[in-house]
């Protein structure tokens, strides 16, 4: 039995997810219903006739849906929808970094209480499967540092300034013309987008809930082509770097920041070109591990979302198998952030 999917939000990522599910490439997830705003986009021709089209969120709480996929963005009503979905017995998949950064622990707890899944691979670094890699692949280590290029827009701007000596303004205009930057680029340039992702990585990698607003950010808008040329002359370049590390000896304390930083040209962070993202994690035992790839865009993020759906399908399959029934608890997602009230995040 495939997981039956109800999707809300039919923009860049929502459409790409619907296309991927409609392609029938994987039988483990089936798109049942798409929910848009009443005055939202028209139903596209390519959507199979078997998929319902609705303008009511409540339609996703019907018994024929197993997983609600939220691809609208923002905190509300996404948070309320997630609550209602869990309480109606659904799992939730999202790519919404603001929601997960601010309310991840609350939603993880509610999902666990309801014995449902909450997955958000697409919320950090788009198509780079860093959440699952950290949660599962590096579970045997104790991570001490996470450093990354988490905003593709800033990386595009800085690499264009570097390669063609463009001014910040011209590089930004080019990024906007190509659709890599929003018409209001504040969240990217000032670091607000990256710090939400960094906060999520702190929760997943360190098990510590860091509020995004506790992470200090510096703007990349002050970087000049001369700064980049000077850095290059010294074997370095400038990137918007997000970094977080444990404060040893003080449990639940993290030192974190986002802003322009000089990085060596031969290091992993300098190798991110254009809109790419790179995440470097340092473990106490295993040392450095690097993840890189497309940090945004409809298709890469859709792959992350559909992979979450397949993980839920696989998990359900295992749970429904009688031989695995004693492992129910152990199989739920293992994000273990402390509550925001109880933790001492420090930036
Ligand atoms: N784009 C990326 O590369 C990317 C990468 C990683 C993660 N994400 C995350 O993925 C999520 C979606 O991003 P996106 O780029 O796809 O955004 P988007 O293109 O703006 O799409 C959002 C869609 O949600 C619809 N919507 C808004 N309010 C709604 C409501 N009340 N009911 C139903 N639909 C509603 C919007 O409709 P209207 O057009 O009518 O407003 C729009 O079609 C966000 O959380 C974003 O942070 C995006």
Report on this model:
The protein has ten helices and eleven strands. It has 347 residues and is α/β, with parallel strands linked by helices. It folds into two domains: 158 residues, 3-Layer(aba) Sandwich (Rossmann fold), CATH 3.40.50; 165 residues, Dihydrodipicolinate Reductase, domain 2. Strand 8 and strand 9 form a beta hairpin. Helix 1 crosses helix 10, helix 3 runs parallel beside helix 8 and helix 5 crosses helix 6. The longest helix has 23 residues. The C terminus is likely disordered. The site of NADP nicotinamide-adenine-dinucleotide phosphate has 22 residues, from helix 1.
Helix content: 25-40%
The Rg value, from CA coordinates, equals 20 Å
Ligand inventory: NADP nicotinamide-adenine-dinucleotide phosphate
Question: Which CATH architecture of the largest domain would you pick?
Answer: 2-Layer Sandwich
Question: Structural class per helix/strand content?
Answer: alpha/beta
Please report the first level of CATH classification, the CATH class of the largest domain. Answer: Alpha Beta
Q: What's the domain count?
A: 2
Enumerate how many helices there are, as a single number.
10
What spatial order of strands do you see in the largest sheet?
3-2-1-4-5-6
CATH topology of the largest domain: Dihydrodipicolinate Reductase, domain 2
Strand content: 15-25%
Q: Count the beta strands.
A: 11
């Amino acid at each position: 039995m495939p997981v039956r999917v109800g999707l809300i939000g039919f923009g860049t990522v929502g459409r790409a997810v619907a296309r991927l599910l409609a392609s029938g490439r994987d039988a483990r997830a089936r798109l049942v219903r798409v929910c848009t705003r009443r005055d939202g986009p028209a139903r596209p021709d390519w959507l199979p006739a078997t998929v319902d089209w609705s303008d009511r969120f409540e339609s996703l709480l019907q018994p024929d849906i197993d997983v609600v996929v939220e691809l609208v963005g923002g905190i509300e009503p996404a948070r309320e929808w997630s609550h209602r979905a869990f309480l109606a017995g659904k799992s939730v998949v999202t790519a919404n970094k603001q929601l997960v950064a601010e309310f991840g622990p609350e939603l993880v707890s509610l999902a666990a209480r309801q014995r449902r899944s909450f997955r958000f691979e697409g919320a950090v670094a788009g198509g780079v499967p860093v959440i699952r890699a950290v949660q599962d692949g590096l579970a045997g280590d104790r991570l001490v540092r996470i450093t990354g290029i988490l905003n593709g827009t800033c990386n595009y701007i800085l690499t264009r300034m570097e390669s063609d000596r463009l001014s910040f303004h011209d590089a930004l205009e080019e990024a906007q013309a190509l659709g890599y930057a929003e018409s209001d680029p504040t969240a990217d340039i000032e670091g607000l987008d990256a710090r939400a992702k960094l906060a999520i990585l702190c929760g997943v990698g360190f098990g510590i809930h860091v509020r995004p607003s506790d992470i200090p950010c510096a703007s990349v808008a002050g970087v000049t082509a001369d700064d980049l040329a000077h850095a290059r002359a010294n074997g370095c370049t400038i990137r918007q770097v997000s970094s977080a590390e444990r404060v040893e000896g003080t449990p639940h304390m993290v030192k974190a920041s986002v802003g322009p930083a000089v990085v060596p040209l031969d290091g992993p962070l300098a190798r991110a070109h254009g809109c790419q993202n790179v995440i470097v994690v340092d473990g106490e035992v295993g040392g450095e591990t690097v993840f890189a790839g497309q940090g945004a865009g409809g298709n890469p993020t859709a792959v992350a979302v559909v992979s979450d759906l397949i993980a839920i399908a696989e998990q359900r399959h295992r749970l429904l198998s009688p031989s695995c029934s004693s492992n129910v608890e152990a199989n739920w997602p293992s994000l273990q952030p402390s509550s925001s009230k109880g933790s001492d995040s420090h930036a």
